[in-house]
Amino acid sequence: MDLNQIPKLKHLNANNFFLLAGPCSIEGEDMSFKIAERIVEITNKLKIPFIFKGSFKKANRSRIDSYTGIGDQKALKILSKISEEFNVPTVTDIHEVNDAQMAAEYVDVLQIPAFLVRQTDLVVAAAKTGKAINLKKGQFMSPESMKHAVTKVIDSGNFKAMITDRGSMFGYQDLIVDFRGIPTMQQFAPTVLDVTHSLQQPNQSSGVTGGRPDMIETIARAGIVNKVDGLFIETHFSPKDAKSDGANMLDLEHLEGLLTRLVEIRKTINKF
User: Which residue intervals define the domain DAHP synthetase I/KDSA in the entry (predicted)?
Assistant: First the structure.
């Protein structure tokens, strides 16, 4: 995939990693715009290609009473308004075949969740929209097996695929990032490291996923050192109040410092 195929993606000549970032879920227009505005400010300053991320619906929940969203059309319209207001591309995840065409009318990149990346009908439906497709590696899948997910996109007539690693299951309640997978998956498509989801601690007895946000910089640095193409970071100005995945999210006030240090590491790596 050529990143130039994603509309509104800027700073592609800066020789930087690209960034998918935003809240886990679109909780409302004000919060979404507040987060988007700050990330745009930071990424323009650091010349980082940026795609705003927000889920229009949360379907993979542990409990039936978990927060799922503010309404599909309402959330998708907010994503579209953010793209227009800040002139940035947007990405959201889809969960059902019927979501593909609906979401494609509002966003630039369709994301296939890790739990669903083997669902052929879903991947093909997303690919046939012509949008760029972000395939999240299943926690249960090897890096090598992601070749087949990419092939499904290509065989559907779409050559705009990327892969995102979000860790692999390590026991019932932990994940681990195997950095050997980055060069493997880069043979198939540009590869992104999902820093915050890799630090989740799933399957808690409470039904609410835990996390290790204190390790965000450790994982992100390792990804940049190992020449990952992009980073995926969920961020919120008040993670403890976020309606989804707050336990592993980065506080927005720490984003500029983190990205500044990562850009410096990338500059060093580019010399080798």
Answer: 15-269
pLDDT, tens only, 101-141: 999 999 999 999 999 999 999 999 999 999 999 999 999 99
pTM beyond 0.90, yes or no? yes
Fold of 3-270: TIM Barrel (3.20.20)
Domain boundaries, the chain: 3-270
* Dist CA 167 CA 139 (whole Å): 6
How far apart are alpha carbons 134 and 111 in whole angstroms? 5
User: What are the b/e assignments for 186-223, b being 16+ CB within 10 Å?
Assistant: eebbbbbbbbbbbbbebeeeeeebebbbeebbebbebb
Kindly tell me the burial class for residue 250, based on how many C-beta atoms sit within 10 Å of its own C-beta (0-12, 13-18, 19 or more). Answer: buried
Instruction: Provide the token pair at 243.
Output: 């309606």
